[in-house]
């Protein structure tokens, strides 16, 4: 599945999907660690396919959503399962770290 770019207007519709694990990457184009994380998320998307959805929210363009989820630094990854937030991580994470985390959350 492709990584989705999500805006304030469609965040709830895309992210609060009760049937999937959704990983939301709150990022900005100018953020170095965000750019480093992008290929890692692409690899996870390929690896897990239809088991997960990855959504990206540009905090500079979607301030309402970033504020409502209290995103204070980037990159911030928020994990949603069954429409509920089940985890938050800030900063760069390696593919192995994220892979293990996704596996753990999928088992819950």
From TrEMBL:
<feature type="site" description="Deprotonates C-terminal active site Cys">
    <location>
        <position position="25"/>
    </location>
</feature>
<feature type="active site" description="Nucleophile">
    <location>
        <position position="34"/>
    </location>
</feature>
<keyword id="KW-1015">Disulfide bond</keyword>
<dbReference type="GO" id="GO:0005737">
    <property type="term" value="C:cytoplasm"/>
</dbReference>
<comment type="similarity">
    <text>Belongs to the thioredoxin family.</text>
</comment>
<dbReference type="GO" id="GO:0015035">
    <property type="term" value="F:protein-disulfide reductase activity"/>
</dbReference>
<dbReference type="InterPro" id="IPR036249">
    <property type="entry name" value="Thioredoxin-like_sf"/>
</dbReference>
<feature type="active site" description="Nucleophile">
    <location>
        <position position="31"/>
    </location>
</feature>
<feature type="site" description="Contributes to redox potential value">
    <location>
        <position position="32"/>
    </location>
</feature>
<dbReference type="InterPro" id="IPR017937">
    <property type="entry name" value="Thioredoxin_CS"/>
</dbReference>
<keyword id="KW-0813">Transport</keyword>
<protein>
    <recommendedName>
        <fullName>Thioredoxin</fullName>
    </recommendedName>
</protein>
<feature type="domain" description="Thioredoxin">
    <location>
        <begin position="1"/>
        <end position="107"/>
    </location>
</feature>
<feature type="disulfide bond" description="Redox-active">
    <location>
        <begin position="31"/>
        <end position="34"/>
    </location>
</feature>
<dbReference type="InterPro" id="IPR005746">
    <property type="entry name" value="Thioredoxin"/>
</dbReference>
<dbReference type="InterPro" id="IPR013766">
    <property type="entry name" value="Thioredoxin_domain"/>
</dbReference>
<keyword id="KW-0249">Electron transport</keyword>
<dbReference type="Pfam" id="PF00085">
    <property type="entry name" value="Thioredoxin"/>
</dbReference>
<feature type="site" description="Contributes to redox potential value">
    <location>
        <position position="33"/>
    </location>
</feature>
<keyword id="KW-0676">Redox-active center</keyword>
């Amino acid at each position: 599945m492709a990584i989705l770019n999500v805006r304030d207007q469609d965040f709830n519709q895309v992210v609060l999907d009760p049937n999937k694990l959704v990983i939301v990457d709150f990022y900005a184009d100018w953020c170095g660690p965000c750019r480093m994380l992008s290929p890692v998320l692409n690899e996870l998307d390929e690896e897990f396919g239809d088991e997960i959805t990855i959504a990206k929210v540009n905090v500079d363009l979607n301030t309402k959503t970033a504020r409502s989820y209290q995103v204070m630094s980037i990159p911030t990854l928020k994990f949603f399962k069954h429409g509920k937030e089940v985890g938050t991580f800030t900063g760069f994470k390696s593919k192995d770290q994220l892979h293990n985390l996704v596996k753990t959350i999928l088992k819950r």
